[in-house]
């Protein structure tokens, strides 16, 4: 078992390509409506598997976007609602994968340093090239769904 610098297990999922191919979209429901996100299941398989597994297990149910910064991003996925919580494990960053540009509508993993992400994620309101190579982009709001971004304006 490998661990990160904080001693947390680095979880690896063993879904087949056929199973991963089923993880195409995520739907996030907010008080303002639904957000439909295309997942990069082939480019970032472990990150997508982690996100989908947590969602299917009900981990995200009832959680809010605990950090919303106008002109930047909205962050969610913290069970403590403080930005400090997450599962007992972490996952490796997949920043060398294709589609790793933080643009308007990108879904990306939040973390406290390389290979420390677990459940927290953020959605970019604007391009954020300073995050490229540091945070795993594992999905995006498709151009046809850009109205979904308006659901995050709390």
UniProtKB/TrEMBL annotation:
Annotated TM spans: none
GO biological process: protein folding
CDD domains reported in the protein's UniProt record: cyclophilin
Keywords: Isomerase, Rotamase
The protein, known as: Peptidyl-prolyl cis-trans isomerase
Pfam families for this protein: Pro_isomerase (PF00160)
Physiological role: PPIases accelerate the folding of proteins. It catalyzes the cis-trans isomerization of proline imidic peptide bonds in oligopeptides.
PROSITE patterns given in the database record: CSA_PPIASE_1, CSA_PPIASE_2
Catalytic activity: [protein]-peptidylproline (omega=180) = [protein]-peptidylproline (omega=0)
Recorded superkingdom: Bacteria
Family annotation (Gene3D superfamilies): Cyclophilin-like
GO-annotated molecular function: peptidyl-prolyl cis-trans isomerase activity
EC number(s) from the headed UniProt entry: 5.2.1.8
UniProt family annotation: Belongs to the cyclophilin-type PPIase family.
SUPFAM superfamilies recorded: Cyclophilin-like
Keyword set includes Isomerase: yes
Origin species: Aliarcobacter cryaerophilus
Matching PANTHER family: PEPTIDYL-PROLYL CIS-TRANS ISOMERASE-RELATED, PEPTIDYLPROLYL ISOMERASE DOMAIN AND WD REPEAT-CONTAINING PROTEIN 1
Domain PPIase cyclophilin-type: 22-154
